[in-house]
Structures
1.
Amino acid sequence: MRRSRGKVRPRSGTGAPLLGEHTDKLLAEAGLSTADIAALHDTGVVA
């Protein structure tokens, strides 16, 4: 396996998602309604 001898620079503006950043989208894709997702937020189940 060949490796580059140059320095690797991380891409700016990328990184791990923030806590809860994609929660609503994932819950909606899992079939939860907007009202169900709001209820989870209201009760503190999700961030």
2.
Amino acid sequence: MLQMKKKLVATLALLPIFSAFALRNSGDADANMRVIPVSHFDNVTSAKQIYFLPKTVVKIKVVAVKKEIKPGPFYKYAEQFLGIKDVAVEPTVIWSMNKIELSTKAVADVNKAFCVEYSGKSFAPYISLTESGILTGVNVKRDNSPKNVTSDNVKVIENIESKVMEVPLLEEQLLAISSAKMAEETAKIITQIRQNRIALISGDVDKVPADGKSMEISLKMMDELEKKYVSLFTGQVSETFQTFIIDYMPDSIADRDVAFRFSKFSGVVPANDLSGSPYYISVRTVIDNKLPSKAAIVQKDRRGNIIPQTVAENGFFCNKPVLANISISYGLDNLVTKECLIPQLGQLISLPTTLFNSNNAIYFYPETGALMSVENKETKE
């Protein structure tokens, strides 16, 4: 949290120095550069440069356990031969929650696409973009960040399955005519294994293991063999760990929105599937990060398109994100919390075009679209 607050303070600290940069570099400034929202154009020609500002997608990672119970072939005789009650009589699937994690990802905001156009013979700055078109800098080296890949609202990305036990069959079982007879022979084998274990522990055997390690190995083998034969009566249980990814777009402050649902019989299901219990997401701002100046662009026309203010109509648009707290809860229990910068909950601001000349290198955070730094090349040299 402290690191994020420092980033916000650093961004705010850069705002008052814009005028100083503008005055010092006004002789070489590109006064004929205009930055206009793409939505204001009917046709955008290739002669114009277009960049996107990012928005934050919250990725909810849910790891769930799928337990599959398969009845044993001798389940009808479990109580008769082994005295075991309440065994599985039909295939059953039970899901349980393992863990939830939160992360964020920047994607291009199609509602914040801007066109940069030039006129005259003045200097045209080089705009650096990610492969998805997100602004990373002006007069700086191109950022070869990987292209953002979209995903479904609920998606399984990983399966880890446990192994199912294989049970060896003896000659007496194979020769048995009926399932009842096979069950009886299997019960005798289980009884024999138990008697052999007691004899081994008590030392009532012809050959005692040479040392404690050998004894431990022998007992372990007996335990595993007994479990395999007993599973023919009680059934087998296999577990699969599955990872689900849910994308959530925090376009506004949220108080217990349903992020997804979880069903004991189906696992993770979409928010609109009422078969599952709801897991809620809340988004709250941590710092009131409003600008006191007129740099904020908040006006929109009837179609929802951004209308730049007169004082900033020729500026270079970037984001001023806010620090937000994101939490996932179930019932009254808060399960996981994460703090992150969210640009779409902040403000759209305009930088003076006098900054964008051959002497200045301007860096932006591709994750948030916020101003990172302004470096004067002449001063640096």
3.
Amino acid sequence: MIQLTKPSTQWEQSSTRLGGPLAALVLACAAPGALAQSAAPATYDPAFVQQMLKRLDAQDAEIKRLKSELARNGDAAGSAESAKAEAFPRLSFHGFGNIDFTARNAQDNTGKRSVKDTFTLGQLDFFLTSRINESMSILSEVVMEAGSDNKMGIDLERLLFQWRFNDYFNMDVGRYHTAVGYYNTAYHHGTWFQTAVGRPTMLDFEDGGGIIPAHNVGVHFHGDIPSGSVGLGYILEVGNGRAYNEADPGTVQNVGDVDKYKAVNLAFIARPEAIPGLQVGAGVYHDTLLPISNTTAAAGTPFLNAVGRTDELMFHAHAVYKHGPWEYLSEGYLVRHKSAGDVAHLTPAGFAQLAYKIDSLTPYTRFSYVHALNADRAWPFVGAAGLHYGPGVGLRWDFSTLAAFKVQYDLIHNSLAPDAAFYTLNGGTLTTVKGWDSMFTAQIAFTF
């Protein structure tokens, strides 16, 4: 055992043996004990030094092991993130359907009941989206449904290439639901999404006699407008529009436009932060129509043949409040048609719907109104004409997370002109309907 005369000699000898940074680490570990013994002579203990060296070697080995593990984990996380980023396409599929029973008391102009009670297969909707990268996706909606001839058909309702640039500019190209009002883009073909059993009268699809162009083929732009808490947004659409075709009312122009004109729709919306759930919006839709009957109508329908190029201007506005158990939907339309050689005709339309959800039950009521003027020569080409208005009440029961049962009673006043020549379609006469039409509908709507 070597007797040292001062503590510093011990650290000098240790530093000489350990050398450099390792010696400094030993010094730091042993310093408290040395300071505690500074008042007394210290002794040099080789066993203690060896113990410290072994401890330092063990700690060094543990540090190396932890560094290696961190590196491996980092590589693994990077590989996983890279694999996740490259996992395209990302497919998502949903299906929707409904089955209805309808009892209707519609009468023709002879007073006879013109519609039979019936069970009805509704639409079977296949909705598919596919992300092909972080900003692009494909949307497809294919619907199977039966026509009035009881034969099943398949329709491609939507097909879109979607490109999301940022919050302020986004683009969809293909066949889309026209952003005329709120309902047409909020509720598509799956009735499960809707509180009610069906769409308001004026918003029916092209083959059902609705006054709006529900579908269009072209390009759809939308995005936010920097506006702080006001929450402004815009929509701009340019497409083929719909054909005013006597033989096929309301045809969507999927592969060719019958004229050189394009339909344009411009709308603005606001979602103020101060009132959560509120959305208001307004816009204008314009198209130039060339009714196909100008060249193809059969003899004996001079009234239809007299229709020339028609300017269509559609003003639309909506107010929607959906927050908590409350749902309020309202829309208004004013359609102006001006045909060559004729005066301008205005068609007003609108609806309001109120619903309140209580657990799984949602009672609701709706009032709709549309007056497609008989003197307006364009409406027969899309199957819409006459005065229709009245209330409806219903109840929705969500008896399952993915299925709902609905009942609805509608009382609608219908009035169509008795001029059979005016409504000559497909070689036959559209039956004139007048008076009140009461209808009860029960529906099971589901998603899968």
